[in-house]
From TrEMBL:
Residues 11-156 form the Ferritin-like diiron domain. Coiled coil: none annotated. Its EC number is 1.16.3.2. It catalyses: 4 Fe(2+) + O2 + 6 H2O = 4 iron(III) oxide-hydroxide + 12 H(+). This is Ferritin.
Length: 181
């Protein structure tokens, strides 16, 4: 069986790769909206540092979406602006917010790995190479999410625990910003 030619006169992106990337665009867009909603809830509840952490995270997720969006269009595809619906606005606790974040980041990692596996399988090495940044980024995202969640077990939520956790989230946020923060 002859494999499809990847490069054509008008595009270098196979339709099935384009579809996977558009699904990832949607996932990144929903991530941004989800984290923005979480940030607002944290802000409303007085968790200022958690809110800052999540506002920044929402911006980062939108940047991730835009990177893929531009890649699809530059490769001759058609990036689709996703509809964002069903975003949750209320949470039971600060801990629940960070449990949901870790769960979500693991789903994003699986989705990224699926795209990388697909790109390699169809010998779309440009997309494979492009997605390596996301592979590394997802490892960092998962590590940061696990670290944030560990604070609840290390510090505890009783007494001034939640206040202390919020302070530590501020430090975690500053550390994730790098030396210029």
């Amino acid at each position: 069986m002859k494999q499809k030619e990847i490069v054509t006169l008008q595009r270098s992106l196979l339709p099935d790769t384009e579809a996977l990337l558009n699904k990832q665009i949607e996932m990144e867009g929903k991530s941004s909206a989800y984290y923005l909603s979480m940030a607002s809830w944290c802000h409303m509840m007085g968790y200022e540092n958690a809110a800052k952490y999540l506002y920044t995270h929402a911006d980062e997720e939108r940047m991730h979406m835009m990177k893929i969006f531009q890649y699809v269009n530059e490769a001759g595809g058609h990036a689709i602006q996703p509809e964002i619906t069903g975003v949750r606005h209320h949470f039971n606790s600060l801990r629940e917010v960070f449990e949901l974040i870790l769960e979500h980041e693991i789903k994003v990692t699986k989705s990224i790995n699926n795209i990388v596996d697909h790109a390699f399988g169809v010998k779309d090495f440009a997309t494979f190479s492009f997605m390596q940044w996301y592979v590394t980024e997802q490892r960092e995202e998962e590590t940061m999410s696990r670290r944030a969640l560990e604070l609840f077990d290390i510090i505890g939520e009783e007494g001034i625990g939640l206040w202390t956790i919020d302070q530590e989230l501020g430090k975690l946020h500053a550390a994730s910003e790098g030396p210029s923060a």
